[in-house]
Amino acid sequence: MQVDQSQILEALWETLYMTGASFVFSLFIGLPLGILLVVTRKGHLLENEAVFNVLNIVINIFRSVPFIILMVAIIPLTRIIVGTSIGTAAAIVPLVFYAGPYIARLIENSLLEVDKGVIEAAQAMGASPGQIIFRFLIPEALSSLVLALTIAIVGLIGASAMAGAIGGGGLGDLAITYGYQRFDTVVMLLTVAILVVLVQGVQSLGNLMSRRVRRS
User: Fold this and answer.
1) In this structure, what CATH number is given to the domain that contains residue 78?
2) Residue ranges of the ABC transmembrane type-1 domain (predicted)?
3) Cα separation, 40 vs 47, whole angstroms
4) 56-85: pLDDT as tens digits
5) Which has fewest Cβ within 10 Å: 35, 117, 139, 161?
6) Taking the model in full, what pTM does it have?
C-alpha cells in the first residue's frame, strides 16, 4: 500500500497540531515555574528556600525521565484526561509533561542572564516584585526568552515524532507504520526531510524574532 499526498498532509497537520497545542499548555506551566525558580532562589526578589528546593527537585525528576518512558508511564493519566491513550489528542498530554519542566529551565536560564543592576535599579525606584518581574526582568530577557522558546518548540517537534511509536499520529507514526514496518525507504526519507524543514523554519523564525526584540 502506497502513501498518498493526503496521508502525508494529514500527518503533517497532526504534527503541527500536537506541537502547537502542547507548546501552549507547556508554556502556561513552564513560564510561572521558570519565574519562581529565579525569584525564590537565594538572594533574589522573593527568596524562599523551601519553595525553590521543592520546585527544583520536581522539575529535575520530570526532566530525568526519557520522553518515550514518560509517555508510557502516564498512560493511565492520559486516559483520565482525554479518554484514550492512542491518537493525536492523547499524545499532547505526555508532551506537556515533558516540555513544561524543560521550558521552566530554559526560562530560568534566560532570566538569570539579566544584569542584577537592572533589578537593583528597579528596587531603588520603589518597584514591587511583580512590577520588577513583568516590567524589567522579562523585557530585559525577552530576546533570550524567544530563543529559549524556539529551542523548546524544536524539541517538541522531535518528541511529537517519537509519539508515533505508540500510535500518537503525526509524521512519526507515518514513518514507523509505512517507512519502518513496511520497509518503505522513500516514506522514511520524506518524513525526515519534512521534519528537517519544519525545524529549520522554526529556528529561522525564532532567530528573526529574537533579533527584532533585542534591546540595543
Assistant:
1) 1.10.3720.10
2) 12-204
3) 4
4) 999 999 888 888 888 888 889 988 988 887
5) 117
6) 0.88
